[in-house]
Design brief:
Layout lengths: L22 E7 L13 E6 L5 H8 L18 E6 L3 E5 L10 H17 L3 E9 L6 H13 L3 E6 L6 H15 L6 E3 L8 H47 L5
Parallel strand pairs: 2-4, 2-5, 5-6, 6-7
Antiparallel strand pairs: 1-3, 3-4
């Protein structure tokens, strides 16, 4: 996708009534090479510490209780999970960080998988960085946000568990997150799975970004298919010429 200045406010559109009507689990990937190759949908990645509420956010957005698996043990989810929403956008649940369990080798491989996805996935249209509203952003979150900004990847910060704070506390937490991340305040969205606060704002940004990138992605994949078909045709012609050259004379 084309890179943008991540510090600019992201577009947002109205959410259609009743959206989303359908959302389906597509596949899981333990390593980057296992990510689906046949899809041409824009993808939105959900990033954040383990137990920050990524799966809960996806379930709430899609009006499903168990579309994305919610783990009670931080660091257990180690797969990249893909969810197709009405053939409009793919939601991608990335493994959490900060509470990783397993051997050092496993944790390192896990980190590489996330990095490979974020750096190399051409489908990636928007990243949602989830932060617990009850605490200030930590070093890992600041570094990830800085990386998004340096690479030009659009990012929306979501303050989860917003219902745990009163109105003034939440307002202060939002302003502080915007200050630390150096983002427009509108790019920091408080979210509650109980009250559904922030749901429409998040969907509005996801849909606007997906619509913005959908045609460029389709054009890119069409050009890649045309190039591949051209190479196959050239190879076929070369093989035919070779065969003709070696035919015995009559």
């Amino acid at each position: 996708m084309s890179r943008v200045d991540s510090t600019f406010a992201l577009p947002r559109q109205a959410v259609p009534e009743g959206f989303p009507g359908r959302a389906d689990f597509v596949t899981s990937a333990a390593i980057y090479a296992q990510c689906p190759t046949t899809t041409e949908l824009p993808e939105v990645a959900f990033c954040g510490r383990s137990n920050v509420g990524k799966s809960t956010l996806i379930n709430t957005l899609c009006n499903r209780r168990q579309l994305a698996r919610v783990s009670n043990t931080p660091g257990r989810t180690r797969l990249i999970n893909f969810f197709d929403v009405q053939q409009k956008v793919m939601l991608v649940d990335l493994p959490g960080y900060g509470w990783a369990t397993g051997s050092r080798a496993e944790v390192a491989a896990w980190g590489r998988t996330i990095q490979d996805y974020l750096q190399n996935r051409v489908h990636l249209t928007l990243s949602l960085l989830l932060v617990d509203a009850r605490r200030a952003p930590e070093r890992e979150e600041e570094e990830l946000l800085m990386w998004f900004q340096a690479t030009g990847l659009p990012v929306l910060v979501v303050l989860t568990k917003a219902d745990k704070l009163n109105k003034s506390e939440l307002n202060a937490a939002r302003s502080e997150a915007a200050r630390i991340f150096r983002l427009p305040r509108a790019q920091v969205i408080p979210f509650s799975s109980l009250s559904k606060k922030g749901k429409d704002e998040i969907w509005g940004t996801i849909l606007a970004m997906a619509e913005q990138q959908r045609q460029p992605l389709l054009d890119r994949f069409a050009a890649e298919r045309a190039a591949a078909e051209g190479e196959e045709a050239s190879d076929s012609e070369d093989n035919l010429d070779t065969t003709t050259d070696t035919l015995p004379s009559q």
